[in-house]
Write a structure and sequence with these properties.
The protein is α/β, with parallel strands linked by helices and 343 residues long. The chain has a domain of 204 residues: Rossmann fold, CATH 3.40.50. The protein contains 11 helices and 11 strands. Strands 2-1-3-4-6-5-11-7 form an 8-stranded mixed β-sheet, with helices on both faces. The longest helix is centred in the C-terminal third of the chain and has 15 residues. It is globular. The N and C termini lie far apart (55 Å). The N terminus is likely disordered.
Length: 343
């Protein structure tokens, strides 16, 4: 018997747009992220009816209201377990988590590392503006040590988290970093994240114009970004700089910045980026690099293959169904040790 359902058409970027106003501050980096995601989703070939955005609490977490897909606005720090449940229940959905440095690094820190450890096939966009924006300027787990904020008038005394380190420590299979001021870079990174099988973590260096304006300026400023960022591409040597004459090379077990043409250094001496080697210790080094000693690594830093949680779960469920002698709830309730009243 033929069904009467029409096939779902591939969505365009217009299908993902909503007419409702986007209530982020003018100049917030979230606008750029939203526009880029709206452009990327149609390129995945997944119709909007199979896309879900999940968020926690914070400025970033308004995202599901601003895109025309299914969405779930969860509690503070709880987006990751919600997204995990959605993906486990329906592996055919494309599940995205949008979160902030406070939402995922503080109250949601435990859920963040266990999502990564399990390697559930979801995509997480981490808005890192190094401040609590929605609650008006308290320092967050990624706020630089010594920063003066509403809750640290004499400067923070805590060591800041580096999200990339947490991903590596939790056995992450995909980590990338990008900036809100570079839509081209974001587009390439978001596409790579969507194509990855497993948990993809994308750290977005995002500007908060109200409480942490220009917090990333030494990385993103037009006059310094060529020398202070290095955009990594799989299979290509690690080159950066305004003149494209700087690079990264190994001397013994140390990574260092060199200038091509000085001291006999050639392009062939530079490290060739390999995102796919699970044993490449450079992934950890690259995730940790910071100014002034090193440029900040951008692009896909790690993208390795591993088992995917919901696929393994589905196989276990199917095997259990096949092997069990209990076929329904009545048989379950009357199996094993059953109490019978003698009264």
């Amino acid at each position: 018997m033929a069904n009467n359902f029409e096939p779902i058409a591939i969505s365009t970027k217009e299908d993902f747009k909503l007419g409702a106003p986007v209530k982020w501050c003018a100049g917030c980096g979230g606008h750029s992220v939203l526009a880029t995601i709206t452009n990327v989703l149609p390129e995945t070939g997944i119709p909007k009816e199979k896309v879900v955005f999940v968020s926690g609490i914070g400025c970033s977490s308004r995202f599901p209201y601003y895109i025309n897909t299914y969405g779930f606005h969860s509690m503070h720090g709880r987006a990751n377990p919600i997204a995990s449940g959605i993906k486990a229940a329906n592996p055919n959905l494309s599940v995205w988590v949008v979160t902030g440095d406070g939402d995922s690094m503080a109250i949601g820190g435990n859920h963040f590392i266990h999502l990564i450890r399990r390697n559930i096939n979801v995509n997480l966009l981490l808005f890192n503006n190094k401040i609590y924006g929605l609650t008006k300027g308290q320092f967050s787990p990624t706020t630089p040590k010594g920063s003066v904020t509403k809750t640290s008038p004499e400067g923070t005394i805590e060591n800041a988290f580096k999200p990339g380190e947490l991903v590596m420590g939790a056995q992450g299979t995909f980590f990338a970093r990008t900036v809100d001021s570079d839509p081209k870079m974001m587009r390439e990174v978001f596409k790579a994240a969507a194509e990855h099988k497993g948990t993809s973590i994308v750290e977005i260096l995002l500007n908060c114009v109200i409480f942490a304006n220009e917090v990333h300026n030494e990385i993103t400023g037009k006059d310094v970004r060529a020398d202070n960022q290095i955009y990594l591409e799989h299979g290509k040597p690690m080159i950066f700089g305004k003149e494209r004459n700087k690079g990264l090379m190994m001397r013994g077990d140390k990574m260092e910045v060199v200038t091509i043409g000085e001291n006999g250094v050639t392009e062939q001496d530079l490290i060739v980026h390999n995102t796919q080697d699970p044993d490449d210790t450079n992934h950890y080094r690259l995730a940790r690099m910071e100014l002034p000693e090193f440029p900040v690594a951008m692009g896909v830093i790690r993208a390795v293959k591993s088992t995917v949680y919901e696929s393994e779960l589905f196989d276990q469920v199917q095997h259990a169904k096949k092997e069990t002698k209990i076929k329904n709830m009545d048989e379950l309730l009357h199996s094993g040790n059953v109490f019978e009243s003698k009264g």
